[in-house]
Amino acid sequence: MNVYLIDFADAMFAPAMYEQAYIASALFCFEKPYMIGYFGNYAVQAIVDLCMTWLPIHAWGHATIDGNFESLEDISSFAVLQEKLQGLIETEKNK
């Protein structure tokens, strides 16, 4: 009944919300059943805001964003990223 810490890959003081964006985008890939199971009846804009706040500063943010889109070449600004995230999350939620 002991607890052992075995991985400090990116251990840091951070708010819990820091990992929520990663969970939604990398772990769940915004897929509806997982999103509803974890976030409940979520609002698309709330998830977009979560991702726009935390993914740019997350240690794996770039890889996470890259994994959700075919090409990063079209993402030329935060405004474009926000628009693409909005479309992706809406599409997944409406499946």
Low-pLDDT runs: none
Distance between the termini: 43 Å
Helix/strand-derived class? mainly alpha
Mean pLDDT across all residues, rounded? 89
Radius of gyration: 14 Å
What percent of residues adopt helix (DSSP H or I)?
55-70%
List SSEs in N-to-C order: HHHHH
Count helical runs: 5
User: Care to count the β-strands?
Assistant: 0
Sum up the overall morphology in one term.
globular
The percentage of residues in β strands lies in under 5%
Q: Characterize the largest beta sheet: strand count, sense, and whether it forms a barrel.
A: none
The total number of structural domains is 1
How would you characterize the overall build of this protein?
There is one protein chain. By secondary structure, this protein is mainly α. It has one domain. It is 57% helix and 0% strand. The longest helix has 16 residues, at 78-93. The relative contact order is 0.17.
Which terms summarize this structure?
mainly alpha; 95 residues; 5 helices; 57% helix
Briefly say what this structure is.
This protein is mainly alpha-helical and 95 residues long.
Write the layout of secondary structure elements.
Elements: H1 17-27, H2 32-39, H3 44-54, H4 61-68, H5 78-93
Helix pairs in contact: 1-3, 3-5
